[in-house]
């Protein structure tokens, strides 16, 4: 692999440096046509890319900032203090990556970025002609694709049965009848990240029963993808963690490389498949895969498209969060996502593009409000936009069981055999989901012995390990309609000192009110699950004062909880000891 190198991304001569004003300066580079921000503080300089780390929006000057130190993102109004390079809205979230500022002897300056070479360029292979039927891509459901690559079968993100995010997401498409058989026969399985619409334990339980040694590959994320494996009691014995940016050779013709996401390196990954010099890029859910650097002109690119994979704003109430405000916001955000994906395809110029990984539905009757509110993009709309912006790219809107023959499609996409659709009477959409089977499992947590003892609250949040943050959270256990339950817990947690007051403190503080469905909240607590099940799964309702996103809080409970569950056996023994002691005194 080639070593890292320094790249000059922007040069200013002495005259241009002298013209820099005190405070914020926006400059565009003639080298790459990208925008940069230079912050001048007397005789010193700081610099960064003009790109928000949240979702890649451009910054503008913040007219509310009288000190001239803050810029505001045009996407979601995130604010960055250029003096500290810290985001101040939301507070305690990201730190902006700085560029090195080199002052030149002649009075000029240059901005330098350390860039490793694009790792897929290492050891390039000759592109060989593909025979008909040699490479076939079969769409199964959601983010699950099966790739036939010569004699090998490679499967992506098998979510084939059961819900995701507790009980909030259900499959929209009906997988082919033999989908589980295909999974169990796969030569390689790639799981992009730990979210349950990609890592589905109900699905993998079937795999473990039939073929526990099936080879599974995941990226080397900071939180292990399979952190919950032991707790799940799913017995898989051949999980392989692959370092980022390195080719993994499978045979003479097949290799793959896993890349991290630039926005969520602790969580998301994407993958490049190389078969006989033909590249397939699957960016899955990555916000900025590989920091935005991706191969151009791949033979097939696959990406998510739908949006709606968040509780915001559907689960929020109070203040501005009326139904009309939510509808306007969702419509605007879906349009932005559609435009971003289309522009990405235009930039990367893949020969074929397929939108997938967005086919879920809030199917349970109790989530009717979310289903009606959480309007998603359609694959057809994205492909229509791509056909305008990038007409040379062939677009494929997949249906369950449809097959793309890569070799035929590259030679002549109008060939009727290039894309085979399922028979006309094939069932496309699910209309039953075995709700009771999975909801009964969640509900079993409600009667757990631990919830009879009030001290479980302190024990759990001490285990969670989040404190020294000026936030007070009220948690209310509710029924399916988010009405408080008479026998449910209703408590406050003060995360400044990890105390549990009976009323809100008099000091100035931020406040969250969380109404959580009792079955899901107790299941999450009992098993030490991440709070994605609550937030992404639409299993709570949220009010906040002030209306500010608390990145540190949510990031901790969604990605940084301990990887081992709370020691509830030890907790119950301690409770019994206390009860006995009280009875004997």
Automatic annotation (TrEMBL):
An MF annotation (GO) of this entry: metal ion binding
Reactions catalysed, as given in the entry: CMP-N-acetyl-beta-neuraminate + 2 Fe(II)-[cytochrome b5] + O2 + 2 H(+) = CMP-N-glycoloyl-beta-neuraminate + 2 Fe(III)-[cytochrome b5] + H2O
Domain Rieske: 12-110
Any one GO cellular component localisation term in the record: cytoplasm
Functional pathway: Amino-sugar metabolism; N-acetylneuraminate metabolism
Keywords: 2Fe-2S, Electron transport, Iron, Iron-sulfur, Metal-binding, Oxidoreductase, Transport
Top EC class of this enzyme: oxidoreductase
Top-rank taxon: Eukaryota
Secretion signal, residue range per the UniProt entry: none
EC numbers on record: 1.14.18.2
GO biological process: CMP-N-acetylneuraminate metabolic process; N-acetylneuraminate metabolic process
Family listed: Belongs to the CMP-Neu5Ac hydroxylase family.
Functional note: Sialic acids are components of carbohydrate chains of glycoconjugates and are involved in cell-cell recognition and cell-pathogen interactions. Catalyzes the conversion of CMP-N-acetylneuraminic acid (CMP-Neu5Ac) into its hydroxylated derivative CMP-N-glycolylneuraminic acid (CMP-Neu5Gc), a sialic acid abundantly expressed at the surface of many cells.
Protein name per UniProt: Cytidine monophosphate-N-acetylneuraminic acid hydroxylase
Organism of this sequence: Tetraodon nigroviridis
Lineage: Eukaryota, Metazoa, Chordata, Craniata, Vertebrata
């Amino acid at each position: 692999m080639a070593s890292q190198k320094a790249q000059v991304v922007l040069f200013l001569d002495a005259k241009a440096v002298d013209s820099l004003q005190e405070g914020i300066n926006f400059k565009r580079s003639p080298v790459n046509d990208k925008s940069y921000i230079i912050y001048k503080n007397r005789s010193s300089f700081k610099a960064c890319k003009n790109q928000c780390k949240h979702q890649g929006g451009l910054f503008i000057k913040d007219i509310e900032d009288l000190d001239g130190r803050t810029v505001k993102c045009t996407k979601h109004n995130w604010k960055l203090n250029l003096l500290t390079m810290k985001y101040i809205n939301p507070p305690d979230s990201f730190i902006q990556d700085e560029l090195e500022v080199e002052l030149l002897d002649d009075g000029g300056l240059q901005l330098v970025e350390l860039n490793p070479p694009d790792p897929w360029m290492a050891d390039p292979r000759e592109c060989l002609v593909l025979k008909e039927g040699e490479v076939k891509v079969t769409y199964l459901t959601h983010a699950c694709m099966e790739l036939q690559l010569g004699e090998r079968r490679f499967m992506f993100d098998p979510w084939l049965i059961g819900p995701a995010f507790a009980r909030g997401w259900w499959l929209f498409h009906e997988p082919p009848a033999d989908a589980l058989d295909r999974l169990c026969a796969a030569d390689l399985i790639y799981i992009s990240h730990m979210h349950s619409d990609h890592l589905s334990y109900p699905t993998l339980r079937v795999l473990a029963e039939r073929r526990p040694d099936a080879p599974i590959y995941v990226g080397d994320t900071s939180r292990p993808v399979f952190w919950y494996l032991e707790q799940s009691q799913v017995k898989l014995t051949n999980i392989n963690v692959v370092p980022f940016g390195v080719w993994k050779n499978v045979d003479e013709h097949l290799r793959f490389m896993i890349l991290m996401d630039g926005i969520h390196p602790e969580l998301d990954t994407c993958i490049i498949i190389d078969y006989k010099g033909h590249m397939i890029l699957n960016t899955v859910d990555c916000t900025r895969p590989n920091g935005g650097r991706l191969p151009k002109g791949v033979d097939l690119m696959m990406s998510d498209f739908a949006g709606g994979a968040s509780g915001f704003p559907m689960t929020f109430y109070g203040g501005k969060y009326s139904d009309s405000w939510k509808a306007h916001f969702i419509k605007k955000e879906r349009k932005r996502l559609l435009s971003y994906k289309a522009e990405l395809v235009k930039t990367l110029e893949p020969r074929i593009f397929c939108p997938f990984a967005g086919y879920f539905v809030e199917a349970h009757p109790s989530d009717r409000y979310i289903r009606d509110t959480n309007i998603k993009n359609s694959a057809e709309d994205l492909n229509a936009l791509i056909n305008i912006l990038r007409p040379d790219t062939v677009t494929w809107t997949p249906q369950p069981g449809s097959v793309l023959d890569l070799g035929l499609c590259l030679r002549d996409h109008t060939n009727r055999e290039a894309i085979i659709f399922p028979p006309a009477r094939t069932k496309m959409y699910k209309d039953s989901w075995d709700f009771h089977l999975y909801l009964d499992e969640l509900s079993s947590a409600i009667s757990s012995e631990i919830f009879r003892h009030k001290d479980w609250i302190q024990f759990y949040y001490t285990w969670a390990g989040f404190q020294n943050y000026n936030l007070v959270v009220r948690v209310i256990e509710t029924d399916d309609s988010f009405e408080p339950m008479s026998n449910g817990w209703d408590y406050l947690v003060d995360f400044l000192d990890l105390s549990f007051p009976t009323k809100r403190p008099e000091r100035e503080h931020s406040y969250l009110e969380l109404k959580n469905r009792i079955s899901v909240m107790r299941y999450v607590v009992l098993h030490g699950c991440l709070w994605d099940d609550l937030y992404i799964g639409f299993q709570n309702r949220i009010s906040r004062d002030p209306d500010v996103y608390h990145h540190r809080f949510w990031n901790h409970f969604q990605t940084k909880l301990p990887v081992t569950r709370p020691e509830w056996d030890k907790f119950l023994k301690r409770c019994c000891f206390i009860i006995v002691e009280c009875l004997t005194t």
